[in-house]
Amino acid sequence: MKQSIIKDRKIGQIFALLFYVLLGWFLYQAASKINYTWKWDMIPKYFVYEKKIPLTSPCDGKLIVKQNKAEIICEDKSVKTFDITGYKLEFKNGDYLYQDDEFAYKSKLEPGPFIMGIWVTIKISIISMIIAFIIGLIIAIMRLSGIPALDYIGSVYVTVIRGTPLLVQLFIFYFIVATIFNLPRFWAGVMSLSIFYGAYIAEILRGAIQAIDKGQHEAAMSLGFTSFQKMQLIILPQALRKALPALVGELISLIKDSSLVSIISITDLTKVGREIVANTFSPFETWLTVAALYLMLTSILSFIGHRLEKKMKAKGGI
C-alpha cells in the first residue's frame, strides 16, 4: 500500500507543489526578517515604458493653435508651423513661448531594458550556436578523417577548450585576441562562446557519426559515392537526427553561459539586471525577474526540443 502511494503521480505532484510553496514561504520569511521592502511595482517599466516625444519652440514668440496645427509667430515675424495631431498641448492658445520651450508632447511605447537585454542574449546565443556548430562539425570530421595530423589537431583543441573554464577563455579572447585584431566586444563574446561550445559539439557529432551502422558506409561506397557525397547525403543527415537532443541541450547551456559576456560590458540580460540593481537597490525583485526570463527562454527551447524528438522517434529517426 505504501509503495503504491509513493509511486502515485498525482500525490507526487501535490507533494512537490507543497514543497515549493513551503520553500517560497521560507524565503519570503527570511527576506522579511532583514527588513527588506519589496518593490515589484517598479519592474513593469523595465519591460515597456512610455517615451515622451516633445515639440519645442524654435524661437521666442506667440503660440497660435488652429485645429491640428500650431503656429509660432516669432519676434522676427517669421511663422513656424507644426502638425500637432496626437500631441497634448502644455500651453494655451495665445501663450508666449521662449526658445526651446516644450509646448506639446505625445507618448510612445518603447521596449525597456529587459526586452533589449533579452534581444541581445538571444542574438548572441543564436550567432554563437551557428558558429559553434560549424566549428564542431569541422573538428568532428577532422578527428574521423583517419589523417593523424588532423586528428591530433582536433584532439588537442577539444582537450584544451574542455579543460579550461569559459570565463578564463573569455578574458583571454577579449583582452588578447580581440585587442590584437581590434574586434568589438560583441564579437569577442560571440567568438569565445563559439570556440568553447564548438569543442563540445564536436564530440557530440563525432559520437553521432560513429553510431551510424557501418553498413551505411559500405552501401554508400558500393553505390560509387565519394567520401564527401557519402558524408553529405548519407551519414550526416542520420547523425544530425541522432544528435538533435544533445544539440538542443548545448543551446540551452549556451544561453545560460551567455550571461558571462556581461563581464566584458555587453549589455545582455544579466548586465541589464546589474544596472537595474545599481539604480533601484532592489536585488531580490530584479534577479528573480532575470532568472524567470532565462527560465522562459530555456523552457521554450526545451519544449521545442522534446517535440522534435518525439516527431523523429515516431518516424524512426532517433
Automatic annotation (TrEMBL):
In the record, what lineage is assigned to the organism producing the protein? Bacteria, Pseudomonadati, Campylobacterota, Epsilonproteobacteria, Nautiliales
> What organism does the record attribute this protein to?
Nautilia profundicola (strain ATCC BAA-1463 / DSM 18972 / AmH)
Highest taxon of the lineage: Bacteria
Transmembrane domains' residue ranges: 12-31, 114-142, 154-180, 286-305
This protein is called what? Putative glutamine transport system permease protein GlnP
Which Pfam family name is an example for this entry? BPD_transp_1
Q: Which InterPro entries match?
A: AA_ABC_transptr_permease_3TM, ArtM/GltK/GlnP/TcyL/YhdX-like, MetI-like, MetI-like_sf
Q: Which SUPFAM superfamilies match?
A: MetI-like
Q: Give the way it sits in the membrane.
A: Multi-pass membrane protein
What are the entry keywords? Answer: Amino-acid transport, Cell membrane, Membrane, Transmembrane, Transmembrane helix, Transport
Q: Which family does it belong to?
A: Belongs to the binding-protein-dependent transport system permease family. HisMQ subfamily.
Q: Where's the ABC transmembrane type-1 domain? A: 118-305
Annotated compartments: Cell inner membrane; Cell membrane
Gene Ontology process terms (BP): amino acid transport
Give the UniProt entry's GO cellular component terms.
ATP-binding cassette (ABC) transporter complex
In its UniProt record, a GO molecular function of this protein is:
transmembrane transporter activity
Q: What does this protein do?
A: Part of the binding-protein-dependent transport system for glutamine; probably responsible for the translocation of the substrate across the membrane.
